[in-house]
Design goal:
mainly beta, twelve-stranded antiparallel beta sheet, 14 strands, extended
Amino acid sequence: MPDHFFNFAVELSTFRVLQGFNAFGGSVRAEPVVTYDPFEARVPGRLYEFPVNVAYEAWISTNYNLPYAVDLRGGYRRFDERDRKNLMATLEQRFRPNDRLFFILSASHEFKDEDVGWVAFSDDDIILGRRDQWTTEIGLEGSYTFTNRLSLNADVRHYWSRANYVEYHTLLEDGKITYTEYTGLNDDGSSRHNVDFDAFTVDLWLRWNFAPGSELTLGWKDNIFARENVVRQNYFDNLNDTWASPGINSISLKVLYFIDAAKAAQRGKRPP
């Protein structure tokens, strides 16, 4: 690709830590001119013209030294395009009931209204779709320390992403998009590109430091992945259907043993 202007952005961020180790901050990021995405078209040399936009973000974080702490973050991105915007919110709660137990409960949600992205090739045309996209992630991770040598760690996570397409466009040579006759429908009238994707994962590790520098790790993983073209709205109904899908289980055992080469060599030189 010949030399081409791709992106320009201006960002301003600030934060402050208070006397009690609570903190807050925020940022503003603007792309004040039209920019160009060299990857969205999925064809080398073809560009997608990305609209002018500005993003705002704010966050607070409380003292991690306390038994309970919270991180809260929110964001909003507005585009110079019809009804196009992004909203984001994240909540993370940190619990430390005692010196042995620690866990984090997190939840995040992002909504992209009228987002634009590649969907297909039709004849010689590059088809981009305009879609509403929701992404939700719920997580629970924790650890329990039995002794200074033995600990248990767990991570449970559910990722749910949905995309509902509302219209389609053809990508022009200059990077702009225009009307297309492509409908994105199957013969039965259902959407060919709507997607509802779930990933439910469980990771469990037992770690034992049985000697200096040496470790035994026993791990168990359970992964469930589900994908369909029907976009669901109810979180718990969707979660129940995900649990009903087949999963992939695996167990692993890893042993790391530290050998002090210098001491081993000295022992080998000792007289019988």
